[in-house]
Each structure stands twice: as structure tokens, then as C-alpha cells.
Amino acid sequence: MNDDIQEPVNDARQNFRSGFVAVLGRPNVGKSTLVNALVGEKVAIVSRVPQTTRHRIAGVVNGPGYQAVLLDLPGFQKPRDLLTERMQTAVNTTLREVDLIILMLNAAEGIGGGDRFVSDASFRTGTPVIIALNKTDLVGPDVVLPLIEEAGGLGGYQDIFPISARKGWSLEELKAAIVTRLPEGPQYFPEGEVSDQPERELAAELIREQALRLTREEVPHAVAVDIVDMQRREEKDIVDLEAVIIVERDSQKGILIGKQGKMIKEIGSRSRAEIETLLGSKVFMNLTVRVKKKWRQNERVLGDLGL
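User: That's the sequence. What structure does it adopt?
Assistant: C-alpha cells below.
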């Protein structure tokens, strides 16, 4: 899992602000939704399944005189296999390198022990922390106001914003607070670049996103996607893509294929539409399912998947 901080493409310019911002929180608190909303484009997949994000994803927010690199991180967790151990290591490593932390809480679920564990880890770094109380669209002011007070007791925060990443509530105010706290620095990504994810990796994630959505809770943590081949035809604006969905058991393979192949066809159809939007080209995709037993404990498989 390669999570080195990006090298600058331009040296620091006078009065130009830039920096790396870790987006932290319990699983399924809305980190990827927030990053996508602030970037203005989809750079991270979104699912109701906890632990959808498996590696650090950079979403780049550009504006006049600033560049904020938002790092969408896996949710804090107790490692249960080699995959989740590597995911938590990526989180711990990133926390030592960032300029600002966005600590996300879920207003719809309240503040629990998991939130306190994440907040303690955040405040221990000594890095400035902004608290974002997300999903306020799901509750009323009578719930939000006490939660703001409770969140304020978690540690020495810079600001607290009640937001809805899904509906865009108070995101401009949150963005302004982020920019204000960025240090002077270089431009890390060229203008117009919104993520550090290669097209192949984004395509794999878009396929996994649809597999998670369509199978719900039946096989989520056992699913990975490997892009075997991805080639753009020279004579036509067409991309040929061969991908394999990886699972751990034959029963999971059966769920993903579905009766008469209906599930795999639906996953392919939905993800192909997303990939065509990403690439701006028509996509011909060959999608299959393969069983690799205990792949989440296999160093070679994890390395091949970039995890």
C-alpha cells in the first residue's frame, strides 16, 4: 500500500496556501461523501456498507490562491485480518504527516465510544482539528444543538460545523475554515487534477461500488476488483476493459453472478455507465467473478490489488 505524500509540482508561491487534510471518523460517517462534495467531482466511491474505503484517496480542492488536498481515509477499526491491518496502518501513518484534521461525527447516531477513540487519536497528534457534525439533515435542531455541545468536549478543536455532506449544507463555510488554516506552501497537483487515483484504480472502485450496492450485506468485505486489462483503441474512442471481481467463497461467487447471470450483468451495466462518464469514452467491458480463498490474508494478492 503506497501512501507517500505527494511531491509538489510547483514551488511555494507568495501567499499561496496549500496542505494535506485528513478526513477521519468511524466507518460509514460520510467521509467519502464529504470529500466528493468539496472536490465537486466523484473521486471516492460511496456505500452504506461500513469500511467501503480501503486505501487513502486524495481529493484535490482548488481555488484562488489555495489548494487543499483532502485525504479520504479508511475508518478507524480494530484490525481483523491482513487487509484491515494495512488499512489502519495507512491511517496511523497519514496522521503524522497532515496539516489539518477534519473529525467527522454522525448526528443521526450520536457520539459514542468509537467517536471518542477516533477523537482521542486526532487530538493526540497536536494537529489542528475541525469537527464536522454530519448527517444533520436526518435529525432536528433539538438533537443537533446538544450534540454540538457534546462534541465540543472531545478536545481542543478549532471550529465545529453542523453539516450535511449529502445535501451540501454548510460546506462552503467548512471549506472557508479549511482554507484559512492551510499553511503557505506549494501547488501539489496541476490545475484541473482532482485526484491521485489512476484511471484503472478508479474503474476498479466503480465496479466494486456497484457490487456493494447490489449485494448489500451479503458479500461486502469479501469483494475486490482487479482490472486485468484496460486499453483504448487507437482508431476509435472506445476503451476495452477486462475486470475480475474477487471473492473468498463459492457461495459469494454465486450471489455475484446471480440467477441466470442477472446480478453480474446489472453490476456490469451500472458500473460501465459510471466508467464511461469517468473516461469520456464508450466502454466495452468483460466482467467475471473468481474465487480466491482467504485473499484478505494473502500478501501477494493484496500487493497485486495495491492494498
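The domain at 199-304 is CATH 3.30.300.20 (GMP Synthetase; Chain A, domain 3).
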